[in-house]
Design brief:
single chain; 129 residues; four-stranded mixed sheet; 16% helix
Length: 129
């Protein structure tokens, strides 16, 4: 009989799977040039229920997917520990371009580096008109 090997779950995903356990809450969002490669992860920490985060950090990777980079995962976990985060929420997938509107390209325009997102809904990835 064949044994099914379980893929090891990362410590970060284990934190996400625990669900809401109170504040502080961390939100983790993934960004990339398309829906396949995540080159940026943004982690926001909310100490209480409010609209703007109390802390925000970003990690970038040009050569590897940030979801599979153990160094970035460890830095994120250290960031969460340093703020005693109790709950972690993460996007199901990549939710947009890693470039920032108004900083990397003009506001109201499509990112010239990421044509995939120019006509797509960032949540469903469906083409929009």
């Amino acid at each position: 009989m064949r044994r099914i090997r379980k893929r090891p779950t990362s410590q970060l995903l284990k934190r996400v799977q625990r669900g809401f356990r109170g504040y502080p809450v961390a939100t983790i969002a993934l960004y990339g040039p398309d829906a396949e490669l995540a080159t940026k992860v943004a982690v926001a920490i909310f100490l209480a229920e409010r609209h703007e985060p109390d802390y925000l950090e970003r990690w970038l990777s040009q050569d590897t997917d940030v979801r599979h980079n153990p160094d970035i995962e460890e830095q994120i976990l250290a960031f969460l520990r340093s703020h005693a985060v109790r709950s972690v929420v993460m996007t199901d997938g990549i939710i947009g371009c890693p470039h920032e509107e108004g900083i990397d390209y003009p506001e109201g325009k499509a990112c010239p580096h990421c044509p995939y997102w120019a006509s797509r809904d960032r949540w469903t990835h469906d083409t929009i008109q």
